[in-house]
Amino acid sequence: MPSNSFIDYLKHVENGAKIGWDESQQLWFPHKSPEGGNDTIAYGHKLLDAEVEQANKGLTDGEVEEMLVEDLDLAEHGAKNILYDHFNKDFDSLSEDKQEMLIDFSFNLGCYGLKRFPKFVGAICSDDKATMCQEYKRYFTDGFGVKKELKQRNEEFYTLFLA
Q1: 32, 48, 109, 158: which has the fewest C-beta neighbours closer than 10 Å?
Q2: Beta bridge partners of 149
Q3: In this predicted model, what pLDDT tens digit does every residue of 41-50 receive, in sequence order?
């Protein structure tokens, strides 16, 4: 299970502004996902079709925390599989911080997103910090097709793992 500092980091980079949180009702409500498709709720959880109706009624902190834990479990499982299948490396042999770096990428990009960062993943596996520092930055394409850096997330990632 990821550390509390990693979970706090994820909450901050996924939704530090607490978009969708209704203070008066103490409930989370969906908001539009930057990448389109189903809405997102709380800390980067992309709603499944079966979850939309309940989410529109609002979810408690406990319910979204449970979703986050489940999403992190999926991200960890995906990272383990990609690391083994495509990099011939054992996830469990890595230090906690290296595992968390891979979980973060898997959580943010989907587990197959790790395959788009072979130099970064290789640097993690070989403890090559200089290459990690060159290869960790992530980008997104906005609604107009313009590639933009995930600047805040990259800065937070660097501070937590690479500084």
Answers
A1: 48
A2: 139
A3: 999 999 999 9
